[in-house]
Amino acid sequence: MTITLGAIPQLDLILLGLLLVAWLISGWLSEHPPKSLPSVSLLMEEYRRDWMRTFVTRNPRIFDAQLIDSLRQGTAFFASASMIAIGGGVAVIGNAAAVQRLADELPLPGTGPDVALRMLPVIGFLANALLKFIWANRLFGYCSILMAAVPNNPEDPVAFHRAGQAAEINITAAKSFNRGIRSIYFALAALGWLLGPWGLLIGTVFATGILLRREFASASRRVILQREP
Prior knowledge:
single chain, mainly alpha, about 80% helix
């Protein structure tokens, strides 16, 4: 089975470009929102700093250890799921007969090579998600070490400094995790290309709309904004 990139219609190329632009812009807006409209991701950064400031005076610190461990488990789960999905996608592309049967049995436009070609953006987004989740997992590990280095005595002059370091590493890990989640959303959007260019457009619009709504207009955001009772 031969996959020819040059055979992609111009409309499809334009919509693929739109998919990439939507992915980049939604990520930028989530991490660099307007000051008058902070995103959930930005709001949670201050809560993470609050967590580490509270962590210094909490005794015992078993709850904090369990929480950071659950964050690592979450990143490990998504990394494993992404790896399995990538393997499945590569296996489908590598099996010419299976791809051709898929194209024949389902109402998908194009031949087997066309279907295989349209799986490439999906695998690309999943690969990016995998790398982000792996890095987030490692950063949460760094964070746990920094937390362990915080002195038990809150009066120690380095206690809050080290807690602040842990908070910033925690925030960086969360950014990487969120980027991985966004890549999964857009991998699902890219699946719309299997239905043709308009399927890709609809998938892009839906993925972008869902992500932006959850960052800027969700019920959870309204709750998070209520920092004071």
